[in-house]
Write a structure and sequence with these properties.
The structure holds 3 protein chains of 3 kinds.
Chain A: E1 9-16, E2 22-30, E3 36-40, H1 47-54, E4 66-67, H2 73-76, E5 80-83, H3 97-103, H4 106-109, H5 117-129, H6 145-159, E6 163-167, H7 175-190, E7 194-198, H8 205-208, E8 211-215, E9 219-224, H9 225-228, H10 231-237, H11 244-247
Parallel strand pairs in A: 3-7, 3-8, 5-6, 6-7
Antiparallel strand pairs in A: 1-2, 1-4, 8-9
Chain B: H1 8-31, H2 35-56, H3 61-86, H4 91-111, H5 121-126, H6 148-166, H7 168-176, H8 178-183, H9 189-226, H10 233-262, H11 270-291
Helix pairs in contact in B: 1-2, 1-6, 1-9, 1-10, 2-3, 2-4, 2-9, 3-4, 3-9, 6-9, 9-10, 9-11, 10-11
Chain C: H1 3-8, H2 14-39, H3 43-66, H4 74-98, H5 102-127, H6 135-141, H7 149-168, H8 170-178, H9 180-185, H10 190-208, H11 217-231, H12 235-259, H13 265-299
Helix pairs in contact in C: 2-7, 2-10, 2-11, 2-12, 3-4, 3-5, 3-10, 3-11, 4-5, 4-10, 7-10, 11-12, 11-13, 12-13
Classes of the chains: A alpha/beta, B mainly alpha, C mainly alpha.
Amino acid sequence: MSAKPCPLDIQNFSAGYGNGELVVRDASFRLRAGAMTALVGPNGAGKSTLLKGALGLLTHADTACVRFFGRPLEEVRARVAYLPQRAEIDWTFPASALDVAAMGLYRKIGFFHRVTGRWKAEARKALALVGMESLENMPIGELSGGQQQRVLLARSLAQGADLLMLDEPFVNVDFATEERLGAVLREACQRGMSVFAVHHDLGDVRRYFDEAVLFDGTVVAHGAIDVALADANLHEAFRLGPPPEEAIP
Amino acid sequence: MTISLAVDVPALIALLCALVACGTLGNFLVLRKEAMTGDAIAHSVLPGLVAGFLVTGTRSISAMFIGAACAGIASILLSGWARRATRLEPGAPLGIVFTGLFALGVVLLETQGARQVDLDPECVLFGSLETLFYVPVLDAPWYTGVPRAIWTLGAAAALALMFALLFLKELSLLAFDPSAARHLGVAPRWLERAFLVIVSASIVASFEAVGSVLVIGILACPALLAAPHAKSVKGQIIISLAAGALLSVLGYSIAALAPQLFGTPTALNSAGMIAVVLAIAVPLSHALRRRA
Amino acid sequence: MTSGATFDIPFWGANTIMVTLGCAVFGALAGSVGTFVLARKQSLLADVAGHAALPGVALAFLMGEWLEINGRSPWLLFLGGGTTAWLAAWCTPWLANKRRLGADGANAVALAGFFGLGTVLFSLVQSHPTGAQGGLRKLLFGNAAAITSSDAFALASIALIALLVLVLYFKEFSLLAFDEAAAKVLGFPTRILDWMLLLLLVATVVAGMQVAGVALVVSMLIAPAAAARVIGGSFAKTATLAACIGVACAVTGAIASRAIDHVPTGSAMTLAATGAFFLSIPVARFFHSKREHVAKELAV
């Protein structure tokens, strides 16, 4: 294989919630393979909508404009993993860490088959990759916020994903956990995975990510962090008016 | 108290079948935080039941089932559409749609002569456990005397249990993380629809015998009281069915015994008593867990 | 057609007028209280409170028989039904938060428990020699035709008092519904206000139980309010509009059930209210597009 195919290629993509208003308008960008890319923008810019729309989780999204690894999503579902916002998941659910990791294998296991020892071994391997193998029998409700995120990550690894799409992975976790989670994501990246995450904190984008997509209903800028998050772009996305140096004639 | 073979045994069998039919699937409703959806379906199926009856003119099971399942699904689709169109809190469209359909059912029942049959609104709410008798027929095999409701309920219980076991992992993922379930293609649309159809079928089969009050009780309460003690979905289903069965028998016995204790002549409504026992058990079960 | 002609139709007796007026006041109360129920996301709690009036009514009847006072006095039934409805409205949030059942689970448990108790107690009432044989069905689905003008007077006065309280404390209640934390910070007694709102909900249930029925009173609480909310406007405007829609639905229901045989009043009111809600969606779309059109013209 010469050049890696682009993990996510979006051209003129629009999405909304079916009430006539478009939340995402004409967005276009191509992710760099093997990089960690942050999706940054103001509140209500439609970052989650972009993610969900691209994954076909919304009824009103133009999924024909979205290609994963050069193919439509339907052909490469297993290679794409999605981690919803923490609040969207019910952590009191009666399941152990191993149960959740095994969920990534359900498609491979198929209908009418039970989760047998062979599959459990595979799920255990995924848990080991995120350093959670010692807690496999722990109910997920008793894990810390960072451990819960790592279990979900193990689920994506078990699934065999090459592209990881995360919605606000660093929200509501303490600083130490954030660091560790960043390291785990980085490690996944080094194994050849591409990471694409909604991120709300402009202050520490540089700490974890290589590239950024600056987004405000549509793509304002995209590229290496320093380029994408240049002051002029930020002022445009966050509607702060023209940046000071331009204001001076 | 003496157990009467002709009266108590059919009632208890019907009760346990209803518990298995509704209680098994109720676990998934509770895990999805949709316990009240069960209540909504239980109310909404009424116009479908009556329409099925009116169209065919008989109490044919299939016609009433089809009508009821259609009404149940219509209520979910309609309230889902209204929620998206209005952005109200999810409870409001659900409440409006199911009370609307229920009112329509009551009107149909009261005006269209269906009330001459034994399907009347009070029976729909309170059930008719007390009227399930085993009537042995001379010169016929034993099973001819078994009330029809028991056959229906038995079939519904088997269907629900089989569905839950076959799709255990898919239904669990759908409840835990619906977006992942849809994204991975693990839980396709038809599975979600099939779930609703089978829930509706269980509810319809149950509420002729036990009434909609107890249907709400056995859909939500066993699962809720098992939740604090379960470590897996399968475990929760097993605990909920076992505890639900014990408590139902307890409630039934209280309803049968209390009048003798207080010396009043009439029997208490057993479906209502079971609902009360189940409802009281839920907070107790949670308190037990906190103590432990 | 003159108004006199209308009154010549035989079913417009003095009793009917009184009952219809009672229904109208109930409708106004239900619509406006419903606005707060919706804003506080308590639609299904209202359903629970409605059903929970049943055991109280049965208890009141049994107590009345036991004490040998008139067990059918509307005030006694209001007191009984109101007590259990209030108990349910109070213990459901407790179950949801303190027992971690979640709003949904708590609603289901309380509904099953209270309504179950109601059916048990009613099986006692019906065995009573003076027991109300047909009374249960009237209570479940409402029957305006069966109530006397003194019943109507009782329910109208409860509804009027509740409406008065609602109007007097309107801005405090709206602050509580909109932002409870802010109300607390601003020094309002949020606890007391919260209880008062619950009492208003209970008063609506109690006023409506004979005409709308305990099983269906919830729809009169949420459907008119939801319709008004969909059409939009400020909170005060929404509440007023909801009250108007409530009156229209209640009166339509009362008249329809009188005109058509065997139609329970509660069912007729509910169907009218459901219709109003579904009508509000296209109406709101129409106004919305019109408003957008005007906005565009202004922009040009």
